[in-house]
Amino acid sequence: MLSIIGLLTIVVIVALLISNKITPIIALVLVPIAAAFAAGFNFSEIGGFFNSGIESVMSVVIMFIFAILFFGIMQDVGLFDPLINKMIAVSRGNVIAVAIGTVLIAAVAQLDGSGASTFLITIPALLPLYKRLKMNPYLLLLLVGTSASIMNMLPWGGPLGRTAAVLGVDVTELWRPLIKIQVIGLVLLVGLAILLALREKRIIVKRGDFNEELFQESTPLAKNPQDEEASLKAAALRRPKLLWANTLLALAVIGVLVWGIIPAGFAFMIGVSLALPLNYPNMKDQMDRIKEHAPNALLMAAIILAAGSFLGILNGTLMLDSIANDLVKILPAFVVPYLHIIIGFFGVPFDLLLSTDAYYFALFPIVEQVVTGFGVSSLSVAYTMIIGNIIGTFISPFSPALWLALGLAGLEMGRHIRYSLAIMWTFSIVLLGISLLIGVA
Prior knowledge:
Layout: H1 2-19, H2 24-38, H3 43-77, H4 81-91, H5 95-109, H6 115-132, H7 137-151, H8 158-167, H9 171-175, H10 179-207, H11 228-237, H12 243-259, H13 264-279, H14 283-316, H15 319-329, H16 339-345, H17 347-350, H18 356-372, H19 378-390, H20 400-409, H21 413-437
Helix pairs in contact: 1-2, 1-15, 1-21, 2-14, 3-13, 3-14, 3-20, 4-5, 4-6, 5-6, 5-7, 5-10, 6-7, 6-20, 7-10, 7-21, 8-18, 8-19, 10-21, 12-13, 14-20, 15-18, 16-19, 18-19, 19-21
């Protein structure tokens, strides 16, 4: 019964997110509460689940608020203008070059193993470029998310750490056979980026948005022919003379973020506190900058808190664990020896149903135990389930980092799922097929 209630809860929430009929906050708060009541839990118990879920995302919420403020200020002062103008000059209107660059930049940014920091680094820097070139911002999220997912097979990434803990093996040994899959995956993703960019270019030309003058090297970013008033306002906020000071500040904040010496939220809090007086000595200007960026930060912070409540209730009621157990039990006997391949094949859709913890700590141990009884090695089960699932990391509503990315880009979860699910799932299936052919999985 817990599995049925939990599955219906997730399906309803995903359907509501995709439909755009209500805000994510309503879906993430009310549906799990109703499900918990239906499962027989009382208000006091649900309150405990809520506290647990909120605690799990609170650090992300704090980081999110101050990261939005920090990168918003950095955009205001024009920190990313040289990079964006250079990419425009190099691409010369070639959206293919921009798409390829997105994949490579995201891969480098993900080296620290943190999806949140990858989005914090890539989205604020590349989103203005995508908007300038009239490219779909959901393509940016698709490419960054997929590239980060491939790189997330690193030993210090969450999936391998969880798998190594379940199997009791050294995580570095677990990772080495996956290096070739990461290389192949990035090469394939560059090819996919080219195909998607060609499609995007056709769409842009069909809309009549392609303008050669936008891609002349001498054209400054601030001159937006569609909105001269907004351009003048943005230009007044630029601080070109402080470019190097702001660059050093941004690199310092990102360096501390990667180093991990202090919490990420604290790092961005310090960054905001330094960036405001550095660029805007007047207190009124400082408050104006905070007021400008606070609505987006607070809105998405509220959504993340709602997602924390959602996760807390589903974990606390053991619905996720029950789903993982029952999914294995209901399958016909003749498919059991191939269960890991089936799970790997549907790995990306599973990300819409199960959290990462539920997938690796609840579903994986059961599949591994069942399939190894038919002579399949534990490592083969692990690699199949990792490769099949990991591409969907940043399409899942269970991912706080994805909510962060959506907030940074001003995008919607439902539209992201509609735009990216089929593409990411197909890419995952191809990568899994290659891993099976070359003997990794």
